[in-house]
Model the fold of this input.
Amino acid sequence: MNATSGAPLDPAREESRAKSDPLFSGLPGDIDVSFEFFPPKSEKMEAQLWDAVTELKPLDPAFVSVTYGAGGSTRERTHKTVARIIAEAGIPAAAHLTCVDASRKETQRIAEQYWEAGVRHIVALRGDAGEPGAPFKPHPEGYNDAEELVRGLKEVADFEISVAAYPECHPDARSPQAEIDYLKRKIDAGANRAITQFFFAPETFFAFLDKTKQAGIDVPVVPGILPITNVAKARQFAGQCGAEIPGWMDSLFEGLDARPAARQLISATIAAEMCRRLYAGGIRHYHFYTLNRADLAYAICHLLGMRPKETAE
Done:
């Protein structure tokens, strides 16, 4: 069965086809995609974000999401960005919401404001402290974790809720099994899907997917895809979330600091091949961490058979 949509799939035939035919030949584009953006800090960055939204809109994404800065630092900008995407681009937009630096009443009021702005989808996260590496400390009157946040959001309105999943285990988790157990509690609290942190090996995702099934998690688990545009930042992100950058991948970017075009080509190649292998395993929804750039995500979607469904305005 298809790992996300339930459609019939012949794994042996698909594996054989992936190995014998040109890797991306004949793909029908039968996939769903979603894209993550972050709220801009300046007019120039806002223009870049809107260029990305405009370029990706014709791919008819299932939704896009907008992040929430560490320590709740982008709260107003996140709200403004999500509201604009819904109103002007007409794309279903999800707002990230965390437990950081807010009481339960404050968090619920933020959720009410999202609902009033037409937001029906929340990405519910525990969140991290403002300082890198600092331990999470819940607000004295706030939610302690994402499980409590999910329950609180369901009290506000009938939001669609996505939560985070960590194929390589969150650094704060006691063990990989504890991570799975926690994910199950978030789903039981009312979450509709899990979106994974990025990873760089398909087998990492499939092994994690097997564990979620064994735990009775029956909602979609969507792989998060990060095409690397900045190797140094990717290493930083990986260190913060427990992801591993394989040595073979690290070496491919060596000597390319002053060659951005070459870096982009290699980045797209690596990410596209991984998505193709995920596709061969039945995956039909991909969540791209765009870093507010459309080019790499668009290219990968094109390779996977997606074509514009409308003309960009």
Strands lie at 32-37, 63-66, 93-98, 121-125, 160-165, 193-198, 221-225, 285-289. The longest strand covers residues 32-37. The chain has one domain: 11-303.
